[in-house]
Amino acid sequence: MLESKKGDKMRKKIYLILIPVLIVIGGTILYYAIDYLKPIPHSLSQETIEKSDFLKKQKAAVYFSTTSDQDIGGDGLGLTVFIDRKNQAKSFSSKGLELNNLAVSPQNDLLLVDSEKMRLIGSSYKEFDLKKPQYMGEQTGYIPKKQLFFSLFNTGFDKQNKYTYTLSYGNKSGFKEATIPFYINAAGTDQDRIVLLTTQNVQEENSPMRIQDVTFSSGKMKLAAQAELKIEGKNEIEAFSSILSDSDYYYVVLKVSEIDHEEKNKLVMQRIDKNSFEQKTFLMYSYKKDEDSTTSIPYNIKNSSHLYKGIIYYIDGLGNIMTFDTKTTRINKKFKLEQINQEATQHHEESFFKENFLYMLRYDPKSAEKYLIETYSLSNGKKVTESKIKGLAEILNSTQTHDVFSYDFRMLN
Questions:
Q1: Residues in a beta bridge with 118
Q2: C-alpha gyration radius of the chain
Q3: Exposed end of the chain (fewer CB within 10 Å): N or C?
Q4: What's the sign of the alpha-carbon dihedral 231, 237, 239, 243?
Q5: For 131, phi and psi rounded to 5 degrees?
Q6: Closest CA to 315 of 263, 362, 262, 371
Q7: What is the pLDDT of residues 215-268, one digit of tens each?
Q8: End-to-end Cα spacing for the chain
Q9: How far apart are CA 367 and CA 388, in angstroms?
């Protein structure tokens, strides 16, 4: 009997200890469940973005996404944040797509891409399903003379162990898909085609890089190799810009590292003649020994360069804007952004060029709004305007259960 009473007392003690522990565990689970299910503030509905006048009221858009590992696991999230003329941010949620970017046509139609769909927003709304889910973007754009949008997806190795990309191209009439059987180092558009810088075989050391054209005829895609990239020496090469073009040349900014002298890094402008494919390399900048070149990686490689009235503008990750005169080939440091964070962390900061202006999405920890858009004149390098964005910080804070990153920023109207 005495042992039974001792046992009862022991069980009561265990219960008294377990009850508060279970309450704490249960409360923690409930807290995170509520936080996970909490709706994103300032959200846009499908019905809203389908309206024909929706885009006309927006002045900018920023694309955020989770990384491919979260998307594959079914926990991905994509956010296209639209900023209206009153600087209010509102977000449209979709599936995620790492390294994705936005594309706008001259008619101001906007292409939104996620891992499963292509959405065209503008005077009318259309959406199309991809043939199979994609988890990593490469480049999205518009080909004016063909009136085609396109999106390149990094598909990875196929069953034959060959590196491939999927190209989806089309317009409001529909989209088609094709395969690019090479690794893509950089991409850009000309008036009637896509231009690629590709690596022949990524599994082969020192495999050559080639300039390739993607053209379209009768609704079909044609891929043609034009020339091998020629840079003197034994180098590792990394594209730091998209490919730009004028009537005579293609241009791309490259980081070149000598294989036998790793401390010797340089930034160059590679110019390729569009007819003869003759090439010339122009030195933009040499990195000093022991200098950390990672901090100079552009805010966004796809948006790092811009051709306007014969001058190519290039911005690095330290806020330096350099120019390359396509007529004289003269290279100059034009200006530097104000109040630059010299550290690698950039808090979703992005760059975008349009005509004679550079637009910057910036982070200011001292501001109540946290995020702002700065406008710089390319003519004189001076800051013209500064607009604080309302609601963007709240939107991003609400996604803390997902790791989202900014992948594109552009001004619209």
A1: 113, 128
A2: 25
A3: N
A4: positive
A5: -65, -35
A6: 362
A7: 999 989 999 999 999 998 888 999 999 999 999 999 999 999 888 776 678 999
A8: 86
A9: 8
